[in-house]
Amino acid sequence: MSGQATLDPPPPRAGIRTARGVRLLGVVTGAVAVALVTTFVLWMTRSGHAARQVNVPASWARPVVSAAGLADRSGVKITQVAVTGGGGLVDLRFQVIDPDKANALHMSHSHTGAFKPGVTYYYVFNNPGEFVQRGARVVVLLGNAQVEHVKVQ
Question: Which of 22, 74, 89, 146 is the most buried (most CB within 10 A)?
């Protein structure tokens, strides 16, 4: 070596072009994903999927009674209908007013023994797809009666 430096041209900067391309692709992909999610949410809320009305099959129909009428007719008072379990369960709670009428309901195959007056019992139902939501109004069928427009907590 003679002590002189040679000036070689710098290597091509292909890596910079690739990094910019990847960033641009990421931005475009993110924008498309946001647009798709926004479209889906707007479609669900405007098409009625979020608050759909479902008719009860005729075989489920029972005489419609008020909440007080349910206590007179079946011996139970609905104390709560709530969505629990992160939205995956519906919790129905009822208090027994008249054990003789309540025992005639045959409401539960898992309950053994006679219902006791003043005791609150509960049923927990699966809520697949979070069909029942907080704030909704539901129809509760107990024995040979139904209470309409029960608000879900």
Answer: 74
Asked, for residue 8, whether it belongs to a domain, the answer is: no
- Same domain? For 23 and 71 the reply is no
C-beta separation of 30 from 114 below 8 A:
no
Residue 112 counted as domain residue: yes
pLDDT average per 10 residues of sequence, the chain (153 residues): 65 63 75 69 57 60 81 89 92 91 69 84 88 89 82 92
Burial class (CB in 10 A: 0-12, 13-18, 19+), 46: exposed
Residue 4, in any domain of the structure:
no
Give the SS3 label for residue 129.
helix
